[in-house]
Inverse folding.
Protein backbone atom coordinates (compact mmCIF):
# COMPACT_ATOMS: atom_id res chain seq x y z
CA UNK A 1 0.00 0.00 0.00
CA UNK A 2 1.39 3.38 -1.05
CA UNK A 3 0.19 6.91 -0.43
CA UNK A 4 1.41 10.44 -1.06
CA UNK A 5 1.38 13.35 1.35
CA UNK A 6 0.69 16.85 -0.01
CA UNK A 7 0.92 19.95 2.13
CA UNK A 8 -2.21 21.97 1.40
CA UNK A 9 -2.11 24.84 3.90
CA UNK A 10 -0.07 26.58 6.56
CA UNK A 11 -1.74 29.33 8.54
CA UNK A 12 -1.46 30.82 12.02
CA UNK A 13 -5.15 30.18 12.73
CA UNK A 14 -4.53 26.42 12.31
CA UNK A 15 -1.84 26.47 15.01
CA UNK A 16 -3.59 24.45 17.70
CA UNK A 17 -3.95 21.03 19.30
CA UNK A 18 -6.84 19.13 20.92
CA UNK A 19 -9.23 20.57 18.33
CA UNK A 20 -11.80 19.01 16.01
CA UNK A 21 -12.00 18.95 12.23
CA UNK A 22 -14.87 17.74 10.08
CA UNK A 23 -15.17 17.62 6.30
CA UNK A 24 -18.37 18.71 4.56
CA UNK A 25 -18.18 18.69 0.77
CA UNK A 26 -14.80 20.11 -0.24
CA UNK A 27 -14.08 22.05 2.93
CA UNK A 28 -12.61 21.07 6.28
CA UNK A 29 -14.03 22.88 9.30
CA UNK A 30 -11.71 23.42 12.28
CA UNK A 31 -13.03 24.24 15.75
CA UNK A 32 -11.66 24.52 19.28
CA UNK A 33 -8.30 23.51 20.67
CA UNK A 34 -5.45 25.26 22.43
CA UNK A 35 -2.33 27.21 21.56
CA UNK A 36 -1.02 27.30 25.13
CA UNK A 37 -1.58 24.37 27.51
CA UNK A 38 -4.94 24.49 29.31
CA UNK A 39 -6.02 27.67 27.56
CA UNK A 40 -8.78 27.29 24.94
CA UNK A 41 -7.68 29.33 21.93
CA UNK A 42 -11.07 30.53 20.66
CA UNK A 43 -14.60 29.52 19.73
CA UNK A 44 -14.22 30.52 16.09
CA UNK A 45 -15.05 28.18 13.23
CA UNK A 46 -12.33 28.09 10.57
CA UNK A 47 -12.82 26.77 7.06
CA UNK A 48 -10.02 25.20 5.03
CA UNK A 49 -11.10 25.24 1.40
CA UNK A 50 -10.04 22.21 -0.56
CA UNK A 51 -9.77 22.55 -4.34
CA UNK A 52 -13.07 22.46 -6.18
CA UNK A 53 -14.25 21.12 -9.53
CA UNK A 54 -14.28 17.53 -8.36
CA UNK A 55 -10.60 17.14 -7.65
CA UNK A 56 -8.56 17.81 -4.51
CA UNK A 57 -4.93 18.44 -5.39
CA UNK A 58 -4.40 21.58 -3.36
CA UNK A 59 -6.29 24.58 -2.12
CA UNK A 60 -7.31 28.00 -3.33
CA UNK A 61 -4.29 29.84 -2.00
CA UNK A 62 -5.80 33.32 -1.94
CA UNK A 63 -8.32 32.43 0.76
CA UNK A 64 -7.35 28.92 1.74
CA UNK A 65 -8.16 29.39 5.42
CA UNK A 66 -11.05 31.60 6.46
CA UNK A 67 -12.44 32.65 9.81
CA UNK A 68 -16.19 32.32 9.46
CA UNK A 69 -18.66 34.89 10.71
CA UNK A 70 -21.22 32.72 12.47
CA UNK A 71 -24.70 33.37 13.78
CA UNK A 72 -26.88 31.68 16.35
CA UNK A 73 -26.06 30.62 19.90
CA UNK A 74 -22.28 30.06 19.85
CA UNK A 75 -20.58 27.39 22.00
CA UNK A 76 -18.00 28.50 24.55
CA UNK A 77 -14.26 28.06 23.80
CA UNK A 78 -13.11 24.51 24.56
CA UNK A 79 -10.41 21.90 24.05
CA UNK A 80 -10.66 18.14 23.78
CA UNK A 81 -14.13 18.19 22.27
CA UNK A 82 -15.21 15.72 19.59
CA UNK A 83 -17.18 16.06 16.37
CA UNK A 84 -18.86 14.04 13.66
CA UNK A 85 -20.93 14.77 10.56
CA UNK A 86 -24.45 13.73 9.65
CA UNK A 87 -26.62 14.91 6.74
CA UNK A 88 -24.35 17.81 5.87
CA UNK A 89 -24.08 19.19 9.41
CA UNK A 90 -21.41 18.94 12.10
CA UNK A 91 -22.14 17.87 15.68
CA UNK A 92 -20.02 18.48 18.80
CA UNK A 93 -20.24 17.29 22.40
CA UNK A 94 -18.66 18.80 25.53
CA UNK A 95 -14.88 19.28 25.98
CA UNK A 96 -12.87 21.20 28.57
CA UNK A 97 -12.96 24.95 29.14
CA UNK A 98 -10.85 27.42 31.09
CA UNK A 99 -7.69 27.04 33.16
CA UNK A 100 -9.32 24.49 35.50
CA UNK A 101 -10.03 22.30 32.46
CA UNK A 102 -13.26 21.07 34.01
CA UNK A 103 -15.62 19.40 31.52
CA UNK A 104 -18.11 21.73 29.87
CA UNK A 105 -21.44 20.58 31.32
CA UNK A 106 -24.35 21.24 28.96
CA UNK A 107 -26.94 18.79 30.26
CA UNK A 108 -26.52 16.31 27.44
CA UNK A 109 -26.87 18.88 24.66
CA UNK A 110 -25.06 18.65 21.35
CA UNK A 111 -23.92 21.60 19.26
CA UNK A 112 -24.97 21.61 15.61
CA UNK A 113 -23.13 23.65 12.97
CA UNK A 114 -24.76 24.25 9.59
CA UNK A 115 -22.05 25.07 6.99
CA UNK A 116 -24.55 26.36 4.44
CA UNK A 117 -25.55 29.25 6.69
CA UNK A 118 -22.67 29.26 9.22
CA UNK A 119 -25.24 28.89 11.98
CA UNK A 120 -24.80 27.31 15.40
CA UNK A 121 -27.70 25.63 17.22
CA UNK A 122 -27.87 23.92 20.61
CA UNK A 123 -29.56 20.52 20.18
CA UNK A 124 -31.09 19.60 23.52
CA UNK A 125 -32.02 16.02 24.29
CA UNK A 126 -35.70 15.36 24.86
CA UNK A 127 -35.80 13.27 28.04
CA UNK A 128 -34.23 10.37 29.87
CA UNK A 129 -30.60 9.55 30.66
CA UNK A 130 -27.72 11.58 29.27
CA UNK A 131 -23.95 11.08 29.08
CA UNK A 132 -21.81 12.98 31.58
CA UNK A 133 -19.67 15.86 30.35
CA UNK A 134 -16.16 14.87 29.30
CA UNK A 135 -13.11 15.67 27.20
CA UNK A 136 -10.79 13.68 24.94
CA UNK A 137 -13.67 11.44 23.95
CA UNK A 138 -14.55 10.38 20.41
CA UNK A 139 -17.62 10.52 18.18
CA UNK A 140 -18.87 9.20 14.86
CA UNK A 141 -22.18 8.63 13.09
CA UNK A 142 -23.74 5.77 11.15
CA UNK A 143 -24.72 8.04 8.23
CA UNK A 144 -28.38 7.45 9.05
CA UNK A 145 -29.95 8.86 12.21
CA UNK A 146 -27.51 7.89 14.95
CA UNK A 147 -24.50 9.59 16.56
CA UNK A 148 -22.15 7.53 18.73
CA UNK A 149 -20.21 8.94 21.69
CA UNK A 150 -17.49 6.97 23.46
CA UNK A 151 -15.13 7.17 26.44
CA UNK A 152 -13.00 10.17 27.44
CA UNK A 153 -12.21 12.00 30.67
CA UNK A 154 -14.83 13.32 33.10
CA UNK A 155 -13.67 15.59 35.93
CA UNK A 156 -11.89 12.61 37.51
CA UNK A 157 -10.81 9.33 35.96
CA UNK A 158 -11.65 7.90 32.55
CA UNK A 159 -14.66 6.29 30.92
CA UNK A 160 -15.40 3.23 28.77
CA UNK A 161 -19.07 3.97 28.12
CA UNK A 162 -20.81 4.05 24.75
CA UNK A 163 -23.87 6.18 24.01
CA UNK A 164 -26.05 6.67 20.97
CA UNK A 165 -28.04 9.80 20.16
CA UNK A 166 -31.05 9.50 17.88
CA UNK A 167 -31.25 12.71 15.89
CA UNK A 168 -34.96 12.35 15.12
CA UNK A 169 -36.17 11.70 18.67
CA UNK A 170 -33.28 13.59 20.34
CA UNK A 171 -32.87 10.81 22.86
CA UNK A 172 -29.67 9.41 24.33
CA UNK A 173 -29.35 5.69 24.97
CA UNK A 174 -26.57 4.08 27.00
CA UNK A 175 -25.22 1.02 25.19
CA UNK A 176 -22.96 -1.85 26.24
CA UNK A 177 -19.70 -0.68 27.78
CA UNK A 178 -16.56 -1.21 25.73
CA UNK A 179 -13.86 -3.63 26.89
CA UNK A 180 -11.65 -2.29 29.69
CA UNK A 181 -9.58 -0.39 30.48
CA UNK A 182 -11.42 2.96 30.52
CA UNK A 183 -9.48 5.49 28.47
CA UNK A 184 -9.09 8.96 27.09
CA UNK A 185 -7.93 9.77 23.59
CA UNK A 186 -9.32 6.66 21.84
CA UNK A 187 -10.56 6.56 18.24
CA UNK A 188 -13.74 5.11 16.75
CA UNK A 189 -15.02 4.64 13.19
CA UNK A 190 -18.27 3.30 11.74
CA UNK A 191 -18.06 0.99 8.73
CA UNK A 192 -20.10 -1.87 7.26
CA UNK A 193 -22.76 -1.54 9.93
CA UNK A 194 -20.41 -1.82 12.90
CA UNK A 195 -18.40 0.44 15.20
CA UNK A 196 -14.65 -0.03 15.53
CA UNK A 197 -12.60 1.24 18.50
CA UNK A 198 -8.82 1.44 18.94
CA UNK A 199 -6.10 2.93 21.07
CA UNK A 200 -6.31 5.46 23.92
CA UNK A 201 -4.54 6.15 27.22
CA UNK A 202 -5.68 4.49 30.47
CA UNK A 203 -3.77 6.79 32.83
CA UNK A 204 -0.67 4.60 32.85
CA UNK A 205 -0.02 3.29 29.36
CA UNK A 206 -1.10 3.67 25.76
CA UNK A 207 -3.46 0.97 24.54
CA UNK A 208 -2.82 -1.16 21.46
CA UNK A 209 -3.03 -4.64 20.03
CA UNK A 210 -6.80 -4.73 19.73
CA UNK A 211 -9.62 -3.57 17.49
CA UNK A 212 -12.79 -3.66 19.56
CA UNK A 213 -15.91 -4.14 17.42
CA UNK A 214 -19.41 -3.09 18.51
CA UNK A 215 -22.42 -4.64 16.79
CA UNK A 216 -25.48 -2.35 17.14
CA UNK A 217 -27.84 -5.20 16.26
CA UNK A 218 -26.61 -7.27 19.21
CA UNK A 219 -25.56 -4.42 21.54
CA UNK A 220 -22.35 -6.34 22.17
CA UNK A 221 -18.59 -6.07 21.68
CA UNK A 222 -16.01 -8.45 20.20
CA UNK A 223 -12.26 -8.00 20.03
CA UNK A 224 -9.80 -8.60 17.18
CA UNK A 225 -6.32 -8.99 18.67
CA UNK A 226 -3.05 -8.33 16.83
CA UNK A 227 0.62 -7.84 17.61
CA UNK A 228 1.25 -4.08 18.15
CA UNK A 229 4.92 -4.42 17.24
CA UNK A 230 5.09 -1.99 14.33
CA UNK A 231 5.58 -4.93 11.96
CA UNK A 232 2.45 -7.08 12.12
CA UNK A 233 0.33 -4.17 13.30
CA UNK A 234 0.55 -0.57 14.51
CA UNK A 235 2.10 0.14 17.88
CA UNK A 236 0.07 1.29 20.87
CA UNK A 237 -0.91 4.97 20.83
CA UNK A 238 -3.47 7.55 21.90
CA UNK A 239 -4.81 10.87 20.56
CA UNK A 240 -4.46 9.42 17.05
CA UNK A 241 -7.09 8.93 14.32
CA UNK A 242 -9.13 6.05 12.93
CA UNK A 243 -11.03 6.56 9.70
CA UNK A 244 -13.06 4.36 7.31
CA UNK A 245 -11.62 4.72 3.82
CA UNK A 246 -12.93 3.29 0.56
CA UNK A 247 -9.92 1.93 -1.30
CA UNK A 248 -9.59 1.09 -4.99
CA UNK A 249 -12.24 -1.46 -5.85
CA UNK A 250 -14.64 -0.06 -3.26
CA UNK A 251 -13.54 -2.14 -0.29
CA UNK A 252 -13.70 -0.35 3.06
CA UNK A 253 -10.55 -0.34 5.17
CA UNK A 254 -9.71 1.28 8.51
CA UNK A 255 -6.81 3.73 8.49
CA UNK A 256 -5.06 4.68 11.72
CA UNK A 257 -2.32 7.28 11.71
CA UNK A 258 -0.03 9.31 13.92
CA UNK A 259 -0.63 9.71 17.68
CA UNK A 260 1.36 9.74 20.90
CA UNK A 261 3.08 6.51 21.92
CA UNK A 262 4.81 7.52 25.15
CA UNK A 263 3.23 10.18 27.36
CA UNK A 264 5.18 13.13 28.70
CA UNK A 265 6.13 13.20 32.37
CA UNK A 266 4.64 16.69 32.36
CA UNK A 267 1.22 15.33 31.47
CA UNK A 268 -0.93 17.80 29.57
CA UNK A 269 1.83 20.42 29.84
CA UNK A 270 4.29 18.43 27.71
CA UNK A 271 4.71 16.26 24.62
CA UNK A 272 5.64 12.58 24.50
CA UNK A 273 6.86 10.44 21.62
CA UNK A 274 4.91 11.39 18.51
CA UNK A 275 4.36 8.95 15.65
CA UNK A 276 4.24 9.63 11.92
CA UNK A 277 3.27 6.19 10.60
CA UNK A 278 0.11 5.24 8.67
CA UNK A 279 -1.53 1.79 8.80
CA UNK A 280 -4.39 0.22 6.87
CA UNK A 281 -6.57 -2.62 8.17
CA UNK A 282 -8.53 -4.46 5.50
CA UNK A 283 -11.98 -5.39 6.77
CA UNK A 284 -12.11 -7.90 3.93
CA UNK A 285 -9.05 -10.01 4.70
CA UNK A 286 -8.51 -8.96 8.31
CA UNK A 287 -4.88 -7.92 7.86
CA UNK A 288 -2.79 -4.87 8.67
CA UNK A 289 -0.33 -3.27 6.26
CA UNK A 290 1.88 -0.27 6.87
CA UNK A 291 1.53 2.41 4.22
CA UNK A 292 4.67 3.44 2.34
CA UNK A 293 4.27 7.21 2.37
CA UNK A 294 5.79 9.38 -0.34
CA UNK A 295 6.08 13.07 -1.10
CA UNK A 296 8.62 15.84 -1.53
CA UNK A 297 7.73 16.99 1.97
CA UNK A 298 6.33 14.85 4.79
CA UNK A 299 4.33 15.90 7.84
CA UNK A 300 5.98 15.84 11.24
CA UNK A 301 4.86 13.19 13.68
CA UNK A 302 2.08 14.43 15.92
CA UNK A 303 -0.67 13.66 18.36
CA UNK A 304 -3.60 15.66 19.71
CA UNK A 305 -4.58 16.51 16.11
CA UNK A 306 -7.67 15.62 14.11
CA UNK A 307 -8.38 14.18 10.69
CA UNK A 308 -11.29 13.34 8.41
CA UNK A 309 -12.05 11.83 5.01
CA UNK A 310 -12.68 13.91 1.87
CA UNK A 311 -13.82 12.44 -1.43
CA UNK A 312 -12.16 13.62 -4.63
CA UNK A 313 -12.20 12.10 -8.10
CA UNK A 314 -14.34 9.32 -6.66
CA UNK A 315 -11.57 8.38 -4.21
CA UNK A 316 -11.32 8.84 -0.47
CA UNK A 317 -8.43 10.92 0.83
CA UNK A 318 -7.51 11.95 4.38
CA UNK A 319 -7.14 15.54 5.60
CA UNK A 320 -4.98 16.16 8.68
CA UNK A 321 -4.87 19.52 10.46
CA UNK A 322 -2.65 20.80 13.28
CA UNK A 323 -1.71 18.93 16.42
CA UNK A 324 1.12 18.76 18.92
CA UNK A 325 4.65 18.05 17.71
CA UNK A 326 7.32 16.18 19.62
CA UNK A 327 9.01 19.48 20.55
CA UNK A 328 5.83 20.48 22.40
CA UNK A 329 4.98 22.94 19.62
CA UNK A 330 1.50 23.43 18.17
CA UNK A 331 1.52 22.75 14.44
CA UNK A 332 -0.07 25.14 11.94
CA UNK A 333 -0.33 22.96 8.85
CA UNK A 334 -2.88 20.96 6.87
CA UNK A 335 -2.02 17.86 4.82
CA UNK A 336 -3.74 15.61 2.32
CA UNK A 337 -3.02 11.86 2.14
CA UNK A 338 -3.81 10.29 -1.24
CA UNK A 339 -3.69 6.51 -1.69
CA UNK A 340 -2.15 5.15 -4.89
Amino acid sequence: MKATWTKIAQHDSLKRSSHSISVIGESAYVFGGELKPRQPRDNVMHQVKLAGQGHTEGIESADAVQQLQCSGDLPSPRVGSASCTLHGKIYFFSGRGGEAMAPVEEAGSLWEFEPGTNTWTSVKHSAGPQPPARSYHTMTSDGGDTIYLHAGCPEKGRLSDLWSFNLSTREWRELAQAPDPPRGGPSIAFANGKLYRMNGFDGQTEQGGAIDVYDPAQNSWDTIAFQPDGKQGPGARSVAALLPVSMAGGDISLVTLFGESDPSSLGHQGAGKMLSDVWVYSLGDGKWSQVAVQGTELPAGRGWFDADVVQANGRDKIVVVGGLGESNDRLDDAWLLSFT
The longest strand covers residues 252-262. Residues 2-339 form a domain with the Neuraminidase fold (CATH 2.120.10.80). The two ends are 7 Å apart (CA to CA).
